[in-house]
Structure formats: C-alpha cells, structure tokens
Amino acid sequence: MSKSSKTVSPAKTVRENSFGWMTKILCASLDAEMRRELKHLGLSLDQFAMLMTLAEAEGLTQTALGSRISMPGYATTRTIDALEEMRYVERRKDERSRRSYRIYLTDQGRTVIPGLFVIVKKVNGQLLSVLSSDEKKQLMTIYKKIVTARFD
Amino acid sequence: MSKSSKTVSPAKTVRENSFGWMTKILCASLDAEMRRELKHLGLSLDQFAMLMTLAEAEGLTQTALGSRISMPGYATTRTIDALEEMRYVERRKDERSRRSYRIYLTDQGRTVIPGLFVIVKKVNGQLLSVLSSDEKKQLMTIYKKIVTARFD
DNA sequence: TCATAAAGATTGCATTTGCAAGTATTGTAT
DNA sequence: ATACAATACTTGCAAATGCAATCTTTATGA
Fold first, then answer.
1. Which protein residue's Cα is closest to nucleotide C11 at C1'?
2. Between the CA of B114 and the C1' of D25, what is the distance in angstroms?
3. A21-151 in CATH: which number?
4. Which of A123, B9, B104, B105 could bridge across to B109 with cysteines, CB 3.0–4.6 Å?
5. If you classify domain B41-151 with CATH, what class do you get?
C-alpha cells in the first residue's frame, strides 16, 4: 500500500461524500430542532407548515393548500382537523362548490403566526451561521437550481 | 406601490427563501426517489442505510452500528431483525460480552451490496446533474462546513 | 463483596402514517 | 337527460414509529 493512500474503506468514502446522505443528515438535524422549538406550542411539523402556508394565503381549498406543501389529501384533512380542534383554523363552506371547503385562520390562529416566523429565523440562522455571505449566496443559487430542475 | 415592488406576501418570501424549507423539499424528493429504487429490492431506507454501513464495517455491535447512522437502539434492533429475516445479515455472539451481538453480512447479503452502490450513484447523479463542477465543489464544501459545525 | 448504576438489547403499547376504499358532488360526453 | 368519469374530502385498517419500561449483563464505588 502506498504511503499516500488513505486507510478508509471504499464504502465509507462513498457514504461520506454522498450529497444525498449529507442532505439527509442536515434535514434530520433541522427537523429535530424544529420539533424542539415547536414543542412548547404543541405543534407538529405538518401543522407548522400548514399555518405558515395560511399566513401566505387564506381561503384556499384543502387540496390547493396541501399542494403548496406537497401534502397528500389525507394528511391535509388530518392536519386541518387538528388545527381546527385547537381553534387556530376554520373550515368555511365554499360558495361555488359543495364538495370543498375554504380554510381560514381564526383570530386565535393569527396570534401564533409571529412566533412561527421567529422560530424559522432562529433555526435558519443557526444553520447558516457558519457560512460566509458568499457561501450563503452560493448555497441559495445551488438549491434553487436543483429544486427548479426537479419540479419544472 | 412602486413599479419595482413585487406582489408577493412577506410569508411567501420567507418560506421560499428559507434554507431549511428548501433542504426539506430536496430531502423529501431524494427520499421518494430512493424508496422507488429500493422497492424492487424490498428494502426500506433504514435497511438500506444499515446495509451500506455494514459494507463499510462489519462486526460492530448493534449500538455502534446504529450510532454511525444516528439510529436509535429500538430501530436498530428492528432493522436488524428484518434484515436477518431476509438472510442478509446475522447476529453473532460477542466473545467478550454476553450482552451484545456483533453484526455481519451473510454471503447472500453481500450479493445485494453492489446494486446499492449503483443506486446511490444514480440518485446522486440525478441530483447533481444540473450543477457545474464548480458548484458541486462549492456545495460539498458548504455541506461539510454545516455538518461539521453541528456534530463537533 | 455487595449494592447500585450503567450499558446493550428487546418489547409492549399508544400514536402516527399511508394506502386503498368510501361518500358526496361536479364535470363531461353521448 | 343519463351514464360515466373525475374531483374533493374523509375514514378504516394495517403497518411503521417512538416512548418508556423491561431484561440481562457488565462496570463502578464504598
């Protein structure tokens, strides 16, 4: 074995250099942090995502709402069930179609939104705190490129 | 409203520019692709990760094996149960300690490994195909920086 | 040495998840 | 107008997940 060769297995090299793997590690770590932050509020990640989407646009049908965050129908139903239970959200009958509802934040729901923005800022901040501003720009460019390629 | 202002809500801007959010989208998309690839092999993502780890190092205890992929003890037990059921893996009694097992690939298990490397290459390749080689280097540097900061 | 704690692994049980099937309503084509 | 397909949403049920308790074995300290 030559002096310069590394004593790592090929498998190790593959895993540690895998973008997919690193993305997963990062994602798991972010999820854990978000969950921890959301715990005091009694919110799951799905419920959080739904509330953020409602902060962006109210009055959509369940399907439209769910599709914004790639949430399947059954999960959308259940997430809204839970948020309705907490009085953060309400279903209103659609005026044109009796098979769909339009989803709105309640006043009570509106009060929790600002705290959610704070959490997002905090978690993203931690994530990015080790990067230079050049690197942040690079990462954003790269992410957008990848995500765009996947969904267009 | 000035000519140059964009007609998007603040919420939308926050979500679409959130690194955490984009990481999650990317991760979900990767997971779905991996699951699809692994389906013919009858493997879950956890089982896949365990087999890849075994390709990297055999003869570890369950706990050691699980800790390499941040898998909690109970999940490690169950993943190994399933892989043992498929005859891809076997538990051998530890010679020094009667409370632990050492985990090894079986011959049959070894035959599936090459296919797993192919899948990893394929999925990572798709992920990165839209990036220039400079961008790939940048992404790797950035990922390593973030992941290192989180776990050291 | 003996009690007590810690480590390694497993499992019971409740919750979550996801598929597939269900209901009700609306759209489409003959 | 009628039959058939598609849409919107819900739900039953089985599998996956996760917490906490358990069992066994090993380590630690007085």
1. B74
2. 37
3. 1.10.10.10
4. B105
5. mainly alpha
